[in-house]
């Protein structure tokens, strides 16, 4: 891999990045039971610091935000101390850390949360998804519909979590409005049947995500706030309608978010390049684009086409802590072991080998 576009430096808000790669957020289920990052998290993320922009796994802003066992939080003093070790380790290796704030909404189960309450969502509609719990695989339960007042409480949880991330030494946060989780659920007509100002129209369904972005940017600065979206992604049982419905929803959402001058827009892209081009035209700062199925020779394709500024890496980076060096040298890549993605411990987490040098 010698594509020169990948190796151009980039200014991202307050940060100077050495190239156009980044670590994509990936859930690893290795936090302590109280949500504090585990002992190996600092090693895992610092191993990948050469990616420059290191975006963490989804991190819940509250007890209600947790969906899976052993995922990290960023809302207690203990969480802050745990993440500080991660931030310091990444910074010591020359990288920059953004903590992804992920409220899962209805993609949860009472057995997976510290308070064992039913999940919350825009409407009381089950996702009908299988989810892993401490006692094995179960179906997601029917969530409780958030009241209008409670929605403002969740906005506050995101704001507090963002402040906590900065207190932990992170360089910024990424708001997770994608992949079937709470903010995405508000955007999807089949998950959002509300009759108040957060449901019904394109404008109303986008309101919650916009309010979260406004609150987080107001708390820590727009130049430390990114957001992730995934138009038409069917994860979590969501259905956002036909192509034109999706385009109308996301052109409105991205247009309103663009006014906030957030540091980046991260698009988990399914292939509607016309829609992606429309984002590019209105977005004033950096655009990150990740697609499923890229091989090493197509990593730079969206950058070369002018559709993206940064190409985050997921599984390539998970299995290759020195993926930047491997791509620069054209070296072979380690294969991913799917069996160890979520199993805990160092196996399949911090033990992927780096290149050996004579």
UniProtKB/TrEMBL annotation:
Listed InterPro entries: Aldolase_TIM, OxRdtase_FMN_N, Oye-like
Family annotation (SUPFAM superfamilies): FMN-linked oxidoreductases (SSF51395)
Domain NADH:flavin oxidoreductase/NADH oxidase N-terminal, residue spans: 6-334
PANTHER family: NADH OXIDOREDUCTASE-RELATED, NADPH DEHYDROGENASE 2-RELATED
Protein name: Alkene reductase
Native source species: Saxibacter everestensis
